[in-house]
Amino acid sequence: MDLVRIGQLGRAHGIHGEIALDGSSLTAEELEQVKHFTWRKAGARRSMTLVGARPVHGRVLLQFAGIHDREHAAELTLGELLVDRSKLPAAGPGEAYTFELVGLEVVDTSGRALGTIADIMRTGAHPLWVVRGERELLIPVTEHIVKNVDLEAGVITVALPPGLEEL
């Protein structure tokens, strides 16, 4: 089984055992299709079966089998949610999952290496790639900046706007 991280569990929500999922690019519907997950935190692992997912204020709330109250949901907080890669729905044409991008090399349009994607931050407008190389850059993910994503080669080409490297 090839487990990949799809997000991190956040705070418990309400009193019936729901918990927020942070940092995932999967929709509630896609999560429900996957259904079976592995939770991991500090070396501990646990198989989890999803019984419900719903979007709320830009995030997804999850309900797992056997988790019926806030206290049990809170025990899952800050754990990673993993899934067998083969169970994920296709990302779609021109799309990629977050886990596929982290670790890829980022170069500018002249071929100059800028670093690798260390993390992806969610913002209100668009995601930001945290690129670490000689220095750390926060690169907005927009069609004007991201020119090419080659998953097979492991390289992303970007056209940095003037002044971004000076920030």
What labels describe this entry?
six-stranded antiparallel β-barrel; 2 domains; 167 residues; 3 helices; 10% helix; SH3 type barrels
Notes on the protein architecture:
It is a single chain. The chain is mainly β and 167 residues long. The protein has two domains: 85 residues, RimM (Elongation Factor Tu (Ef-tu), domain 3); 69 residues, Roll (SH3 type barrels). 10% of the residues lie in helices and 47% in strands. The chain is built from three helices and twelve strands. The strands form two sheets. The chain has a six-stranded antiparallel β-barrel. Strands 10-9-8-7-12-11 form a six-stranded mixed sheet, with no helix packed on it. It is elongated.
Oligomer: single chain
**Strand line-up in the sheet with most strands:** 1-2-5-4-3-6
Task: Assign a percent range to the helix content.
Answer: under 10%
Poorly predicted regions are: none
Overall spatial form: elongated
Element-level helix/strand string? EEHEEEHEHEEEEEE
Amino- and carboxy-terminal Cα gap:
42 Å
Structure at a glance:
By secondary structure, this protein is mainly beta. It has 3 helices and 12 strands, in the order E-E-H-E-E-E-H-E-H-E-E-E-E-E-E. The protein folds into 2 domains: 3-87, Elongation Factor Tu (Ef-tu), domain 3, CATH 2.40.30; 98-166, SH3 type barrels (Roll), CATH 2.30.30.
